[in-house]
Write a structure and sequence with these properties.
Layout: H1 2-10, H2 17-54, H3 62-69, H4 73-84, H5 88-104, H6 111-117, H7 123-134, H8 138-153
Helix pairs in contact: 1-2, 2-3, 3-4, 6-7
Length: 154
């Protein structure tokens, strides 16, 4: 439709320069929007890869993730919300908690060791997040895992 209007105005004997300029700016904006849409998946892909590689870093932050992707914290946050339906930090915590679940099956690691190995600042913060997401503490989760395993072997 914009191009039709543009050509129609150009075909007139005395084209309105202001109208043409406005249409031209609209076209440029449309092209810029299309380019941004193409960039977003690439930015998101870079962010997810960066998070996966740096998941165990307790200093991992929205700022570091955004910087690694060459974007702003705001754009990164918008992408995560729009495309993944979750804030960046909640995504990181969820990924860490999934890793923790796997590590809880290994009795050689204490809860504190698991917290530190999976990027949590402390066992207390891990426990609070774990309870919030799963409804029980890591210790309770581990106990249930081993109860189930012992029951399965009987």
């Amino acid at each position: 439709p914009i191009m039709d209007q543009f050509y129609e105005e150009l075909g007139k004997e005395n084209p309105n320069q202001a109208f043409l300029s406005g249409l031209f700016l609209q076209m440029l904006q449309e092209v810029a929007n299309q380019q941004q849409k193409k960039m977003y998946p690439d930015i998101l892909h870079k962010a997810l890869r960066y998070i996966a590689i740096n998941l165990n870093d307790p200093e991992l932050s929205r700022e570091k993730i955004a910087s690694s992707c060459g974007t702003s914290v705001r754009t990164l946050g918008r992408l995560f919300s729009e495309l993944l339906g979750t804030p960046v930090i909640q995504y990181v915590i969820k990924q860490r908690l999934e890793q923790v679940c796997g590590m809880l099956a290994l009795p050689r690691f204490s809860i504190k060791e698991i917290a530190l190995r999976s990027g949590f600042q402390s066992a207390g913060f891990l426990s609070a997040q774990f309870r919030q997401h799963y409804g029980l503490t890591p210790k309770e989760y581990r106990r249930k895992l081993f109860e189930k395993e012992n029951h399965d072997h009987l």
